C-alpha cells in the first residue's frame, strides 16, 4: 500500500508541476490569469497525477512523468473540444 501512496503523491507532483509551468507561460505572455480556472485546473491536475501515479507506482520517475503527461494530454483534449452553448426554452 505504501508503494501506491508514494506513486500517487509523486504523480500528483507531476500534475502540479504541469499546472505551474502553464501558469509561467501565461505570465510570460502577459495574458490575463483567470485565477478560479487556474485553481480548478491545479486540483484536476493533481487528481489525474494521483491516479496515474498510483497506477504506475512501480517506478518513481515513471509515476512523476505519468502525472505530468496525463495532465498535458487532458489539456490538449480540452483545446480540441469546442463547447457549444445550449439554450433552454
Which structural class is indicated by helix and strand composition?
mainly alpha
Query: Rg to the nearest angstrom?
Result: 15 Å
As a percent range, the share of helical residues equals over 70%
Question: How many domains would you count in the coordinates?
Answer: 1
Strand content: under 5%
Number of helices: 3
Overall geometry comes to globular
Oligomer: single chain
- Specify the biggest β-sheet: none
Distance between the termini: 52 Å
Give the topology string: H per helix, E per strand. Answer: HHH
* Strand elements, count: 0
Rounded mean pLDDT is 77
Outline the low-pLDDT stretches.
none
Walk me through the structure:
The protein is mainly α and 89 residues long. It has one domain (2-80). Helices cover 78% and strands 0% of the residues. The chain has three helices and no strands. It has helices at 2-28, 35-55, 60-80. Helix 1 runs antiparallel to helix 2 (35-55) and helix 2 (35-55) crosses helix 3. It is globular. It starts with a helix and ends in a 9-residue tail after the last helix. 30% of the residues are buried. The mean pLDDT is 77.
Q: What descriptive keywords fit this protein?
A:
single chain, 89 residues, 3 helices
Brief sketch in words of this structure:
This protein has 89 residues and is mainly alpha-helical. The chain has helices spanning 2-28, 35-55, 60-80.
List the helices and strands and how they pair.
Elements: H1 2-28, H2 35-55, H3 60-80
Amino acid at each position: 500500500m505504501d508503494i501506491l501512496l508514494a506513486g500517487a503523491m509523486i504523480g500528483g507532483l507531476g500534475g502540479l508541476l504541469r499546472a505551474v509551468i502553464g501558469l509561467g507561460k501565461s505570465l510570460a505572455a502577459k495574458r490575463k490569469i483567470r485565477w478560479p480556472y487556474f485553481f480548478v485546473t491545479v486540483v484536476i491536475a493533481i487528481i489525474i497525477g494521483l491516479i496515474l501515479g498510483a497506477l504506475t507506482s512501480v517506478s518513481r520517475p515513471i509515476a512523476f512523468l505519468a502525472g505530468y503527461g496525463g495532465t498535458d494530454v487532458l489539456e490538449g483534449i480540452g483545446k480540441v473540444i469546442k463547447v457549444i452553448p445550449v439554450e433552454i426554452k
